[in-house]
Amino acid sequence: MKVFVGTLVHSTGEIFMQVRQAALGVQGEKIIFVEDAAKLNELKEKHNFPVSSIVNLTSSQFLMPGLVDSHVHASQFPNIGLHMDLPLLEWLEKYTFPTERSFSDLKVAQEVYPRVVDRMLRNGTTTASYFATVHLAATKVLAATAAAKGQRALVGKVNMLMNCPENYREESVEESLRETEEFISYTKSLKSPLVQPIVTPRFAITCPENQMRALGDLASKHKCRIQSHLCESKAEIEMVKKLFPEFPSYTHLYHAMGLLTDKAIMAHCVWLDDEELQLLAEKRAGVSHCPNSNLNILSGHCNVKRLLQHDVKVGLGTDCSAGYSPSVLDAMRRALHVSCSVGMEHTKDHVLTPAEAFHLATLGGAQVVSMDDCIGNFVVGKEFDAILVDVEAPDSPLDIYEQASI
Length: 406
Ligand code: GUN
Ligand code: FE
Fold this sequence. Notes:
Elements: E1 2-10, E2 18-27, E3 30-36, H1 40-47, E4 54-56, E5 61-65, E6 67-73, H2 88-101, H3 106-122, E7 125-131, H4 136-149, E8 152-156, E9 158-159, H5 173-189, E10 195-201, H6 209-221, E11 225-230, H7 234-243, H8 250-256, E12 264-268, H9 274-283, E13 286-289, H10 291-296, H11 304-309, E14 313-316, H12 328-345, H13 354-368, E15 386-390, H14 397-400
Parallel strand pairs: 1-4, 1-5, 6-7, 7-8, 8-10, 9-10, 10-11, 11-12, 12-13, 13-14
Antiparallel strand pairs: 1-2, 2-3, 5-15
Bound molecules: guanine (GUN) and fe (iii) ion.
């Protein structure tokens, strides 16, 4: 057993950023008690642990839940900080698809993915929902890497068949399903308690109806989470309307395909109309808010308060490489700035507080990736998934978040 005594900072769900002096006991992976620090002697008797089990935090240190990145493209890290001069659809075609295509060479995956996972962990991201590429072999490398390095991860082989380069797409719906199912089996065979597969139709523009339906069924058969992009930019929404005119909206389309479940992570959701918002809330699908990305590729300002007022689950995503920073701390800062812009357009009630940003980065993210019953805050029975922050350490996350390139 280990007992940490000192400052804990977490979201309780009701209190978005609670700071307390506490004693937190961990046995194996699990939190077995969280009590006021003043009760340490009582706890020693009750749980029968020796003084040598106690870890006293210094006055410059605190424990907080590990950061959750609910939307990030591991395969786009080579482009971080580059190519932010075009809006989404042009950006995908000119820069992003060619970079992702290079993962057909397994050596690229073996070179890039370990550095991605290391960089995420250095930034305090203990949980991430990753998009890889369409390549089965390379996506296996990402899953195995996260498992080996001890990062909690959802890993998705990207599914896409149309409106993308001929040399960078799956060959058919059959191949897409076969390889996705093989990836699901492979991930399970790793026997890692931390890494799970996630079904990943890229977005409606690249996925024909029969593929989306089949992937919805596959996710339901294997009880998998699902991730995609939704209502990110106005041009994207127009194109979806043209491709799928018989559906009342982009969100209704995903719903009809079986993709809008309580295990779904929908990135962006900048431009949802009221009916779409209602549907998303009803289905309990989560939203990954990616403010850095939304600014860089000119997608728009997402009104996060509007989502929260409708009881939609919201977490933060770095969305590298449309977002230029792999740090969730950066995502918190951008989320606050974007909410100030939204506040100027609407009222100050639409502005997020720093405590709300902290909640989105931890428990909010855990809810979006459907792991809130095991991580996200310090509650008895949950796993001890935490980071130790020392504000006086020369290499604290406050300093390193923009360091190092891949
Ligand atoms: N929509 C479809 N693919 C992508 C992607 O790779 N990044 C972002 N930001 N949006 C997308
Ligand atoms: Fe994305």
